[in-house]
Specification:
Helix 4 links the parallel strand 2 and strand 3. The protein is 43% helix and 25% strand. Strands 1, 2, 3, 4, 5, 6, 7 and 8 form an eight-stranded mixed beta sheet that branches. Helix 6 crosses helix 9, helix 8 packs across helix 9 and helix 9 runs antiparallel to helix 10. The protein is built from ten helices and eight strands. Pfam families: Methyltransf_31 (PF13847). This is Methyltransferase. GO terms for molecular function: methyltransferase activity.
């Protein structure tokens, strides 16, 4: 089973009920105001940039940074009629942003993938002004549960996800500690539980099918047992969830 296009995956996830709920909460807590300079570090295809642009108004600036040219192309297209949005190519480990120039910053489901989350947070500290506010949101994949009669295979699926599929699978739980180590003051910590009752939506977001195939190939699950597990998910009442941690901190 092939992996979906990453930009399409991110946009669909952002538009889902789960995505809209936590992203709206993150932006509200971030308290973006008219005239602010706001950084979206690891902006991807720019799903959040229009909402940020609306909040900074005609006198603010939104900066979207990503290292993937394909993502940047989509972000530019999505914001081409928004003159207050700047799209910059760069890495969250070396942000192309001047020191002390940002009033608000967010990094959303990026730290779990980067080589060194601590360096990314140090970069956010460098580019933000004293008094700035920063929003962080990351899953804790160690809390991933998928209900199935074959409990051991569900546990093996989670072990594969945390061990092989995600570089920093438990970074969500470490966000407050990492933020303080980077020099931020932690103001708010929220742990929410996205719930999936639709197996197709869960398959898209959690990669049930493709990650089970990979788990089988990596020896975490017997092939026939993995096939029965995935097939059985759609044959009854479905439930899956994980924990998403959101942290708001101040510079």
């Amino acid at each position: 089973m092939s992996r979906p296009d990453q930009a399409s995956y991110m946009l669909r996830a952002a538009a889902s009920d789960v995505g809209r709920l936590y992203k709206g909460q993150l932006l509200d807590l971030l308290d973006v105001r008219e005239g602010h300079t706001v950084l979206d570090a690891g902006c991807g295809p720019g799903a959040d940039l229009p909402a940020l642009a609306q909040r900074v108004g005609g006198t603010g600036t939104v900066i979207g940074v990503d290292r993937d040219p394909a993502m940047l192309g989509q972000a530019r297209e999505r914001t081409r009629q928004l003159p207050r949005v700047e799209i910059r190519e760069g890495d969250v480990l070396d942000l192309p942003v001047g020191p002390g120039t940002v009033d608000r910053a967010k990094i959303d489901r990026v730290l779990m993938h980067v080589e060194d989350p601590a360096t990314a947070l140090a970069q956010l500290h460098r580019v933000t002004r004293p008094g700035a506010r920063v929003g962080l949101a990351e899953p804790d994949w160690d809390t991933l549960i998928v209900d199935a009669e074959d409990l051991e295979t569900s546990r093996a699926f989670t072990r594969y996800t945390t061990t092989e599929a995600v570089r920093h699978a438990t970074v969500g739980r470490g966000l407050p500690r990492l933020a303080e180590q980077a020099g931020f003051g932690v103001e708010t910590v929220l742990a929410t539980t996205p719930v999936f009752r639709d197996v197709e939506e869960a398959d898209h977001t959690l990669g049930l099918g493709r990650n089970m195939e990979a788990a089988v190939a990596a020896g975490y699950v017997d092939r026939e047992r993995g096939r029965r597990w995935f097939t059985g998910l759609s044959q009854g009442t479905f439930f899956a969830s994980f924990t998403l941690v959101t942290v708001i901190c101040s510079r």
